[in-house]
Design goal:
Elements: H1 11-34, H2 43-50, H3 61-73, H4 94-106, H5 117-133, E1 142-146, H6 149-164, H7 168-171, E2 180-185, H8 191-198, E3 206-209, H9 219-231, E4 235-242, H10 254-264, E5 267-271, E6 296-300, E7 312-316, H11 319-325, H12 357-391, E8 404-407, H13 416-426, E9 432-436, E10 439-445, H14 453-468
Parallel strand pairs: 2-3, 2-4, 4-5, 5-6
Antiparallel strand pairs: 1-7, 6-7, 8-10, 9-10
Length: 471
């Protein structure tokens, strides 16, 4: 029996609607690139526009898609705009967009290897290729794609707890003879606090280690913190080094963290959600040295690798630990294969979308050289922007190797939050206020492959205009 036409239109209508939508989206991107970066309507305005959708009377697909695109054009910060210098949300690459369409249409379910053998092996192949760029031999690599960096980091903590406290998986925190402690820098992504809560060890388990004055974890402070906790009967189990802090794009001393982890018998995890992509550039950051010694790594394809949201990655050198951390069996699931673990028994998720196809297709279409050019262009533009800012009286305070600039108004000392608000209102660029080593700053990051020198000029012009308005 054929599906009702409302559920699955005939071939001619499907092709027509897809062609129409493709043209609409192309037009929308051109319009977005020529307009303001940010549109922030009030909740009441968006809610009023949605009242026409009462779900009582079916509407034509074209009418619905028109309305949704209009709502989004007028109701979001546009990361596809070349003037977006914001958080780690990039303009996406086209092969990855096509991958999302393939995944949505064929809809594989990756929970069990046998139900999506090709999809699971595509993901394994892609993760292995990435792990080898980090210096890991392929035969010791396991892992999976995640919804994002927070899930990948959570996975790292669960694995570390399972490794350090063998009875934790069955008995929980009561199996730990002392308060557990994990160590991350004060500049790390504070999803760690949520992760500790989710794991049942509590937010107090997170020890925020001081930085060295340049936004990087202080290795001496880390050693002292571990020694203090051991002296007080606590149970250190995890070091989380950051390769690309959110505020300032700084890299913790990974090699030193690896040495301390080895000495103290702790799990070393590297949160390289943003900065991990820099290994693909022509000039990998020197401070990334030691990442090949990590027990596990987080990296997000939906950041610098420019795939659509969300496409995190978790890679780990201890497959047996991952299997034990998420050990489960169910009669309604197919039997595991001998040569490949089932994702549902090796990850936080159970049912899971084919996330990895986005990165696979992008890598296959662009190649390592294409991504190298993408990374290097961003870094070159960041260096160019730093020179422009300093020349115009905007001192850059951080020394990031990852394209993130923290700067202040060196002439008037205006509040960075006020300046950012004025720049965003101007419409030519989007930047944000942040804090670097406790100091309020402005933050700009090169995230879009659409960005060119002319957009740097527009940002500097918007900054100068904001400064001239005074307090």
């Amino acid at each position: 029996m054929a599906a009702p036409k409302a559920l699955w239109p005939d071939r001619a209508q499907r092709l027509a609607e897809q062609a129409r939508l493709s043209a609409q989206l192309s037009d929308a991107l051109e319009e977005i690139g020529q307009g303001h970066v940010a549109h922030t309507p009030t909740p009441a305005e968006v809610q009023a526009a949605l009242r026409r959708f009462d779900f009582e009377t079916p509407l034509a697909i074209s009418e619905v898609s028109d309305a949704v695109i209009d709502l989004m054009k007028d109701g979001m910060v546009h990361v596809m705009h070349p003037g977006y210098f914001g958080l780690f949300n990039p303009a996406v690459v086209f092969p990855a967009v096509l991958a999302d369409q393939i995944t949505a249409t064929l809809n594989p379910q990756l929970a069990a290897w046998s139900h999506a053998a090709a999809a699971n092996e595509i993901e394994r192949h892609t993760l292995t290729a990435i792990a080898r760029r980090f210096g890991w031999p392929s035969e010791i690599t396991c892992g999976h794609f995640t919804s994002g960096g927070a899930e990948a980091n959570l996975t790292g903590v669960v694995c570390a707890l399972t490794h350090a406290f063998p009875r934790f998986g069955d008995e929980g925190v009561q199996a730990i003879d002392g308060a557990p402690r994990l160590y991350v820098s004060v500049e790390s992504h504070l999803a760690w606090l949520k992760i500790a809560h989710q794991c049942g060890i509590g937010r107090d388990a997170v020890r925020l280690v001081a930085t060295d004055g340049q936004g990087q974890m202080d290795e001496a402070a880390l050693s002292r913190a571990i020694a203090e906790d051991r002296a007080q009967g606590r149970r250190p189990f995890f070091i989380g080094a950051t390769a690309g802090t959110t505020n300032a794009g700084m890299i913790d001393p990974i090699a030193a963290c690896a040495r301390i982890a080895r000495t103290e018998d702790l799990w070393l995890h590297v949160d390289a959600a943003w900065g991990g992509a820099a290994i693909l550039g022509a000039r990998p950051p020197a401070r990334m040295a030691g990442i090949d010694l990590a027990d596990s790594i987080t990296m997000d394809a939906h950041k610098w690798l420019a795939t659509p949201m969300g496409a995190g990655m978790f890679i780990c050198r201890h497959e047996a630990v991952v299997g034990e951390a998420f050990r489960v069996s169910a009669s309604y699931m197919p039997a595991a294969t001998e040569s490949a673990g089932d994702p549902y028994s090796h990850s936080v998720q159970w049912s899971r979308r084919f996330i990895g196809l986005k990165l696979f297709m992008a890598l296959a279409a662009l190649g390592w050289d294409g991504y190298r050019a993408h990374i290097d262009q961003a870094l070159d533009l960041a260096n160019r922007l730093a020179l422009r800012l300093r020349a115009e009286g905007w001192p850059v305070l951080n020394d990031s190797e990852l394209g993130v600039l923290c700067f202040i108004d060196g002439e008037t000392g205006l509040d960075p939050g006020l300046i950012a608000e004025r720049v965003v209102a101007d419409g030519r660029a989007w930047i944000s206020p942040a804090r670097f080593e406790g100091r309020p700053v402005l933050r700009a990051c090169i995230t879009s492959h659409f960005t060119g020198p002319e957009h740097l000029d527009a940002l500097v012009a918007a900054l100068d205009t904001a400064r001239r308005l005074g307090a």
